[in-house]
Design a protein that fits this description.
Blueprint lengths: L14 H12 L9 H4 L3 H16 L4 H15 L3 H14 L3 H8 L9 H16 L4 H36 L15
Helix pairs in contact: 1-3, 3-8, 4-5, 4-7, 4-8, 7-8
Protein name: 4-carboxymuconolactone decarboxylase
EC number: 4.1.1.44
GO molecular function: 4-carboxymuconolactone decarboxylase activity
């Protein structure tokens, strides 16, 4: 399967695309990669998405560990190998146990999650699979994370779903992270 929307040659970038790419390069990501390569075709959309993602990835009310867990659940739900390849190592570094990561990769509910991890996992699974969240799971999220945390969790699921849709459609190539592959195909 070939990439449909690979890199745009530098000489072919519009002024708006150059400015949008530079904003991403100057931010915490440091480079245009993954979903931002196909999104560069719509520079204004890319910039709005990037700003949302910067908040959700780096500053959400959930913190990095739980945000990365939500990203992995979303990547698995969408069979998104690029998200998985980028975020599985980050999740491990942030403290998500290898057994939890492996269970998510296998589409199993991890048996050894901490309480906050279980709430995030169950919230994300319900939201992706049923398109809503049950009263019990929502109440659990509200009790642990408050309203902002619950909304940020919805935002993480939605944002990484957008990126998964973009990369699945663009057939974005999986980066070589030097880590064992695992996860979605």
């Amino acid at each position: 399967m070939n990439e449909r929307l690979g890199p745009i040659p530098d000489h072919a970038l519009t002024t708006a695309q150059r400015a949008a790419a530079q904003e991403i390069i100057d931010g915490p990501r440091g480079a245009v990669y993954g979903p931002f390569v196909p999104l560069l075709r719509s520079p204004e959309l890319m910039l709005h998405a990037q700003r949302m993602g910067e908040y959700l990835r780096y500053r959400s009310a959930l913190g990095v560990r739980l945000s990365e867990l939500a990203i992995l659940v979303t990547a698995r739900q969408w069979d998104q190998a690029v998200e998985w390849a980028i975020h599985a190592p980050i999740a491990a570094q942030a403290g998500i146990p290898a057994s939890v990561i492996a269970a998510i990769a296998a589409r199993e509910r991890p048996a050894d999650m901490l309480v906050d991890e279980a709430v995030v996992h169950d919230f994300c699974i319900e939201l992706h699979e049923t398109k809503t969240v049950s009263d019990r799971v929502y109440a659990d999220a509200l009790a642990l994370f408050g309203e902002q945390g619950a909304v940020d969790l919805m935002g993480i699921c939605g944002y990484y779903t957008l990126l998964a849709m973009v990369m699945n459609t663009a057939r974005t190539a999986v980066p070589d992270t030097g880590e064992p592959r695992g996860g979605p195909p």
